[in-house]
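Here is a tokenized protein:
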Amino acid sequence: MIKAAFSQLASFLRTESSLDALRNILVVIIPSTLIFYFIDGHIAIAFAVGALLAALTDVPGNKNDKLSTAAYCLPIFFITALSISFALHFHSWTIILMLGIFGFIYTIIALLGFRINVVGNLGLIVASFTIGLRPVDPMQFSLSLTAGALFFFVVCIIQVYLSPYRSLRFAVESGIKTMAKLISLKVDCYDEKVPLTKAYKELSALHIKVSDQLETIRTILLRDKKLHSEKDQETKIWLAKLYQLIDLYELLMAIDNDYEQIRETLKGGNTLKLIRKSLSLLSKETKSLRISSKVRKSNPSRRLKLEELLLQLEMEEAEGSPAKWNLICSISTQLRHISDILQNIQVKQVYQDNTLVDSKNYIDFVAPQSNIKTIQKNLSFKSPIFSYAVRMAILLMAGGLIGYFLPEYRYASWILLTIILVARPSYHITQKRNYQRIIGSVIGIAISLTLLLLIKNLLILVIIAAFCLYLFLLFNKPNYLVCCIFITITILVGQHIHEGEIHDILGSRFAFTLLGSIFAVLGCLAIPINHYRSVEHSTKSLIQHFRSYSEKIQESFNSHNLNYYDLRLFRRFTQASLAQTYDSLDQLAKEPLKGKFLKEDILHFQTLAYRINALLVGLSVNLTKLGISLEQEIMSEKINFINSLIDESEMLSQQLATKKEKKNLSVKLKTS
């Protein structure tokens, strides 16, 4: 157990976010310390804040992504810090108006993409920190903060030049780990004792995660211009790994022909048990893969054991019914292909396959970039992000207004910071973040109070604050509650060192954090997000993608002319639509009132959508990868079955809309 715990810890510390945390703490601490001792303490603090907040905007990407982040971040940080600090300096009421403007603009720009969304959120945090720090010289503070951010980006971009495939390597390894979990989950699907509803729910959630990870890899790699150069073999090798990951994903989906049918066909005997053992071996083999390692970790004994299991499986069913034998052959073929991919994925070689897409079409597989027109189309309350942006503007203005009734305006920074970090479009996520922030703050305050009472040596306190800042950066992405504990300790110990107060700092931290949490919940209730619109749009789009994908597969089969580009593109669009639909349905299911009313239908639709996607990918893989030729009658039967499931999903989508209308009507009758 101890060995396993150390292994998990070592694995965690090898992740990109963990290594980034170490880089970030050095980028913040070293130059800030030098500035503090050799230039000025106020400049050092502003520089450290700028570097820290810029570090929090850094998400995986290539060189152009890092440059794009810097291009948005630096002017946003400078303009926000300068305008807020000038308003504070002149005690102007315009600070409330500016908080509202920044709250709206920095929220609505989330439509430009996840990277810009993060920058906008950190721009709001710059406003909060500026209020809390009360800069004496607005221009000096703003320039110092921006200089800190600039220094971080210079370091970050140098790192990208020195190691251009770093983010890509971590993204691929993360995808492989999730694939291992996916294979492990499939073991339960071949166990008659495990309810299929539970298996489908867990699998579908993990498939969405895999889809997101593959999208990250595509986004980083396929926009690389080096892919069009025949001389750049390194990029081609990474493209090969992307192809292999996608092929692995498709093969894992292809096994899902239909678990209900599989269980019924293979019940009795030792067949299902042998399949479960085979999948367990493949899961272990996948988990052991290390892209970054120069030594292959593949275990030959597992490969031999797998072959023994598959031969045993085929021998046991050699005299079975034709349907049973065909199913066994299909599953064993797919499992062998999965094993082949696991053998090849660590090898540094260019992938050769007749299903490859021409380089000129790579960009078609990357999500289109949003622009200012996207924002213009969403400037109405029909758009969830617009409603959320209005809510954030009002909440920040309300928090800013309260600052005028407090002994010092800086106390408003705790309220604003809590609103920024906690208030989310979904009520469920807002409540979860509220819980994590309040519990994290209480624990952090208790630890801080203990440290400040017991330790009087300033150097030791500085070291503790720096170490807690590192732990905050380390847990910022994986665990919000834990990172809340450490950032609370960092801020409170740091403020004590800077200002020499204890009780006032501790009291204001808890009281105004709690007030900000209350505001965040009230905002959700006062300006709710209408998830029905996004659900209605996403389900219609998904059903249309299902139909188009089905028609393309049927067309390819009938014409005997496989267009690999079209089939890959239809699969990619369908998977992206499926992920978006799952997210919309999850948001609706977690609404405090309406979600409970529709939860059963939502789960039914999600399960049905997962089955349809699995069946479609299975047929596509049979045509393109496995070379399994189906008779016309069998193919027509499978297509008709899939189309019947698509029809059922469309009816279920309409039922969700009908129940929504009935629910709205009952609410109106109760209130009238």
